[in-house]
Each structure stands twice: as structure tokens, then as C-alpha cells.
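Exercise 3.2. Students should predict the tertiary structure of the chain below and write it as C-alpha cells, then compare their answer with the key that follows.

Predict this chain's 3D structure.
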Amino acid sequence: MEHDPQDLVASVPAEPTYTLWALLRYMLKLGTVGFGGPVALVGYMHRDLVLARHWITEAQYKEGIALAQIAPGPLATQLAIYLGYVHYRIRGATLAGLVFVLPSFLMVLAIGWAYVRFGGLPWMHAVFYGVGAAVIGIIAMSAKKLTERSIGRDRLLLVIYVLLASVTIITKTEIALLFLAAGVVVWLWRYPPGTGGPTSVAAVALLPLPAVLHTVASHKLVQIALFFTKAGAFVFGSGLAIVPFLYGGVVHGHQWLTDAQFVDAVAVAMITPGPVVITVGFIGYLIAGVWGAVVAALGTFLPCYLFTILLAPHMHQYGHRPAVRAFVDGVTAAAVGAIAGSVVILAERSIVDVPTAVIAVLTAGLLWKFKKLPEPVTIASAAVFGLILFPLLHR
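Answer key:
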């Protein structure tokens, strides 16, 4: 007799059928070999933890996805933290998030050391010549997918999307307050005061006020901590949402990195497993060494962690309210618009000649044609092209 998979999932008991250490081993492995971006990573968690092992119920998984969409934070990391919270509360959430992020953090730390140590060598320039161009193609395709999924045919969201893309291109930075404003506009447009809609101010309270996170001290590590914590508070769904924000602050605001170094940092995030947001570890290392990397990573993931453990107990009751969804839709449209704008900005720095333009277009075309093509494969191929072409063009 065949059983409906949903019936099997529903039969999972409320009490855990696994140990915390078993969950941590799984998250550590996924963080070490999990390529494919946030959508792939959350898919692996559903396949392995819900359908295969029955550690997590379908309802618990869906609540975790809902929380990851409502609150700021990279999707896969936030879901990992939530799944750790389900049966083992704060201890499980803390450890699950830590072991999921740790492998990719150590990788970017090692790459950062090599980049600083050997960055002046011709072969390193050649590698990033090709990789930087490929990153533009990858981000462009990611922006396309996010736009289709997040904007759809909603005209208000489309206006917000175009506005934020334009502002990002013109100012070459990301204005965090516009994210909040976009959420409020959509919330009030769909549920204006006096219509009886659930217009609780709790929807707005789901996001931190960026004003409290302005740099107020001169010490570089303090500046790094405050800046990256503020950046982490505006990562919605895709880790790429942090790219335009980081570019504005790291390159133009604080002038910690050059344009070329920033593009290289994004490339490093693409070739490592785990969340794309881990690029902050590489950036932090270039700014202030190992401690800079540690502080940048902790600051970026702190909002994600805090929002998860604070909202997790209330997700079942409040997570699906229409007013909350409207607010998140507005913020998401703004974030995706900023990502689209950042493609233009970064392309101006990475596409410097005909070969790099060809690499970028070819990368985007391959990802469009072959939906499941692993991004690290395209990055590795671009690195080979760079090693071949760069010496010929820059003798």
C-alpha cells in the first residue's frame, strides 16, 4: 500500500527523534559542501530533514521559510537557525547557525590570506580578471530570477523596484531608509488606516531602525562592527541583497576597499559553499586582518540570529498576517531593485574590454540555458579563461 508523503510527514512526533549533535553534523556537512545558493540550500534541508529523515515536520519547515521571508537575514542561514530552534531552542539555534556558517567562513579566511599574500602576482590578477567578469553574469541572472519571483505583475512593487534600481545606479550606494519606506508604502496601500485591516505597527517593528547603528566611534573594529551589523539588518532572502549596501559603504563611504577588491570579494563568495553573505568575512580580512573578518561576520549575522530567536515563538500566530506580508513585499521589492542597480555599477568596474564582456554574457547565457549548472563550475571556467587571456592582453 502506498502512502501520501504528506501523511508520512504529518506523522512525525512533536518530540525530537534525533539528537542535537546529529543535527549539527548535518548542518556542518551542508555548510561545507552545499553549493548552489540559498534556494538550493533550503531545498536540501527540506529533502533531507523533512522528507528523508522526518526530523522536522512540513508545518515546522514552512514556518521557518515564512520567518526567513519576514525578517532580515540570508535565507538559508536563517532557516538553519530556525530548524535548530524547533526542538532545541536557543542552544540549538545558536549552534546550528554557527556550524552552518563556519566552514565557508574559514574558507574565505584562507582565500583572504592568499589574496593578500599573493595578490601582487600576475597569475592572481589573471584569475580575477576572468572571475570578476563571470560574477557580473551570475549576479545579473540572479537579479532576473529574483525580479520574476518577487515583483510579478504588481505595479506598485514594479514602481518601487525601478525607483530603487535607479537610485542605486545614480548614487552608487544603497539608502537603507528607502527599504523601510517601501515596506510602509505597500503596507498602507494595501491596508490603509480605517479599513479594518490588520495594520498593527508590529509589522514595522520587525526591522531595526538603522539610525541606532551609525558609526559613533573612531576605532576601526568598532566601525566595522557597526557598519556590518547595519548591513546585516537589510539582507532579505538572497544574500546578494547585501552587495549594493556593502559597495556604497565599503568602497565609497569608508573607502576601505577599491572597486577591484570589492568585485574580487563578491567573486570569492561565489566560489565557496554556504551563504553568499560570507563575502563579509573576506572584506573584513582585507580591512583589518583576522579580527576584521571575525567582527564583520559576527556583525552581519547578529541581526539574523536575534530576529530568528525572538520571532520564532510567535511565528505560528503572527507570521502569516496580511499586513506583515504587505510590509515584507515592499521591502523585498526595494532590495531586489537595489540588486539590479548593483549589477550596472559592478559591471562598470569588471567589464573593462571585449573579452571580459564576452565572459560576462557567456556566463549569463549558460546559466539561463542550463538551469542547474553549478555556479562554481562557471567561476572555475572563467578563472581558466583569465589565466589564458590576461597574459596575452597585458604583456
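Discussion points: The chain has a mean pLDDT of 81. Residues 75-118 form the longest helix (44 residues).
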